# Entry
Amino acid sequence: MSGDQVLCAVGDDDGDPGSLPAGAERVVGAHLRRLRKEKGLRLVDVVKAGFVGSAPTLSRIENGETPLKADRVLALARFYGVTDPDDLESLAKLSSRSRTTQWWEEFRDAIPGWLERLISVEHAAREIRTYEVQYVPGLLQTPAYTRALMQRAFPDAITGDPVKREARRERAARVRQGRRQALHADGSPNFYALVDEAVLARPVGGAAVMRGQLRELFSLEENTEHIHIRVLPFSAGDEAMAPAPAITYLSFPSDREEDMVYLEVPSGGSYVTNPEEVARYRLALTTLWGTATTREETLAMIDHYIRKLNDC
# Structure
């Protein structure tokens, strides 16, 4: 895919994107900025209307640099012409969420900045679509599967205190398991997970660990309405070629203007927010989904690999 941009999770070109957060504040702020611009209003116009005390204050709100107050956000949205009750309710919920202490704050020492941004955005999303060619998506991993991956991420060969190394593994595993809250809390986003068949075939952690993980995937697909899992089979051939080995597309309650793509790379993660590039990734994921197995075929394939592990 040409023209890919590695950016922070910012949906507009105003300000310094390298310093901005990417949680509920970012989503709401970027949305308010776009609404203001569509109305042809300057910062000073909004100040003169009496909704904020100064242009710098409004700029900080739009850049996601300050905690949000739901009444102020709703007043601004109405001033910009938003009347739909669902849109206003979504903005109110996101504004309230921005003022809540988040579970991952106690793990700040174990979470790099790029990952904290992703976690914040996951909890603010309306829909998440993800594609993985190597591993089960993080939001669907069992604790045992996660810990097996952490052994690889922090191998014994790394120099240093083995006790500290094990503690680091455990905290990293707890962070990944904590992220699962995004799919099991009230108002959870719709989640669409597309995995390569190699993910099912690779026995991460050994037969017992992988069997438990596959059973978890089977149960989630069979019993959870807002979680959808599909597989790109080996037989799909070159039609199943993705633009990146790990893609996560996140959309938000406001509208598609604030949607973003997270790309996982060996040294961390990067974000794509350019609307044209985001749209291309969405199209790629939609095309791949159409190539994947059906729900019934997915359950049968997962069951097939469970049975193979039972024979081990």
